[in-house]
Design goal:
This protein is α+β, with helices and mostly antiparallel strands. The chain is built from 2 helices and 5 strands; from the N terminus they run E-H-E-E-H-E-E. Helix content is about 25%, strand content about 35%.
């Protein structure tokens, strides 16, 4: 996937670290055919960059409101983002 496709930054707040949220996100995003990444933020949030078809991004954002079984999501914030020249979807280190 290349720059120029729709891209969204999704920030998930709640009990979302230490509950396999990043691994769950990688699996969900790949199943939806999205490119991008997911990482923990030091403030306790999970941050996602999702790029691909608009409907697939919207579906991922909706899925993030539930997350994996051990998560407890309080808030999901979605905003437009600059696309990055990435193929595939990966887990990144905490920032």
């Amino acid at each position: 996937m290349t720059a120029g496709r729709p891209a969204r930054r999704i920030v998930v707040r709640g009990r979302v670290q230490g509950v396999f949220y990043r691994n769950w996100t990688v699996t969900a995003a790949r199943a939806l055919g999205l490119a991008g990444w997911v990482r923990n933020r030091r403030g306790g949030e999970v941050e996602i960059l999702a790029m691909g078809p608009e409907q697939a991004i919207e579906r991922l954002a909706a899925m993030c409101r539930e997350g994996p079984p051990a998560a407890s999501v309080d808030e999901v914030e979605v905003e437009e983002a600059e696309p990055e020249p990435l193929d595939g979807f990966s887990k990144r280190p905490t920032v």
